[in-house]
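tl;dr need the bound structure. longer version: we got a ligand (glutamic acid) that a collaborator sent over and nobodys looked at where it sits. i said id run it. heres the input, straight from their email, havent touched it
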Amino acid sequence: MDKKVRVRYAPSPTGFLHIGNAQSALFNYLFARHFGGTMVLRIEDTDLARNVEHGEESQMKNLHWLGIDWDEGPDKPNAKYAPYHQTERNDAGIYQKYIQILLDKGIAYKDYATEDELKEMREQQKANGEAPHYDGRWYNASEEDIKAAEAKGIKPSIRIHLPENHVYEWDDWALGHIEFKSENLGGDFVIQKSNGLPTYNFAVVIDDHLMEITDVIRGADHISNTPKQMAIYEALGFDHPHFCHISLIFNPATGKKLSKRDANTLQFISQYHRHGYLSEAIFNFIAFLGWSPVGEQEIFTKDELIKAYDPKRMSSSPAYFDQRKLDWINAQYIKKMDENELADRVVTLVHENDSEQATKLAALKLSDEDLKTLLVKVIKIHHRDATKLIDFIDRAWFYATILDQDLSYADFDQLEAADTKKVLEGIKAGIQAADHALDAEEYGALIKQVGKDTGVRGRNLYFPLNITFTGKSSAPEINEIMAVYPSETTIALLDKAIAALA
Ligand code: GLU
């Protein structure tokens, strides 16, 4: 790296943070952190009609949740490069200055063609079997024609004139050597719309140049924009940055690019949060969409990823979204995290989440302290089998409302009723004889004692308890589950089960 690395993530606030956006942000972040460079956040908000309310704020919030931060941006301006919103940059006349330079050089020109004319032109080209392109009709237009169009009050757009027989080529971090011929770019293209705003391709070049961006890392959907941007760099006599086009994310079910219409796939970062994925797991998962490290290791902390990141290992093939892998990674992170920290995260999730599970648990209105005590116990039981934080919420709610649950006692039929009765009554007597609420270890000891006293063993000893306290014959760590309940609940559950047995 010869120059000090500066990269940027440049979202348009036309929606909320999608996995594809997060992927671009993440690779820029890894690139900046790996090379000790600067990460810039620039807001490309000139498409006024498509901007959504709170889009920008929500994108920033979700990036923070993911653990992606930036060194410069609207909230952290560096006077040398500010402002960071393209609308503000436009108001400051930044783009206009360069448009004027190109007009003065005769490389850019005004195009007075109306929408209807352009449409007719494209239809004609289609009918002739040609690829649609702007035919250059206003390039070198006469003074009279321009005056006549002005007199009609037509607001022109501004186009850049492309050289003939010119090749735009670059060495892409992900794709290797890429070439486009100037004839294949669809003709002279618009750099300033008739409303006076710059087009994306123009603004992005001016900003990347002025912000001294060394590497442009963005989705492969922008590949065809890159030669156009190179034409602008060349016309202005600027060096262009290095480019890296990240693999797009594909849906394995449809074999097509993941689409916002694929309703069965979670794809907004806020949805992962809401469903109880850990931000660290999502970060890890996304880092493998379009990149892979050397070796077989799959679980990486953020710091490990920063260290291992190598832009030469960016992939050129599609990245398939693998839900099972995501769940597996999340489960690994859950297993690694200690119960206390997990419980704190779940408490926060219960408060800020409007999912069905979180809403039900929040409705019990437990104090934070009681909620956390309950959750620590639940996490102990389900630490190994949970995939998402929401699983703990779901289980906590179930245990907290066990007396209202419609438990099934059907599996009692598989057991010897007399033995089952002895076990349940033995446990009940043990609880009543104690002068305090038993903890999990004490329940474990009590179960063993009852086994000894009654001579009932194995499944005949454990299944009745599983059914009584969970409604299912198989349950993890039944002594731990019993200790989740207050003693009165444990007794009430035993009474219900004994009654069901009769
Ligand atoms: N605003 C563009 C987008 O959201 C940025 C593309 C780029 O990084 O150049 O797709």
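gonna send this back to them w/ a short note. The first helix runs from residue 19 to 34.
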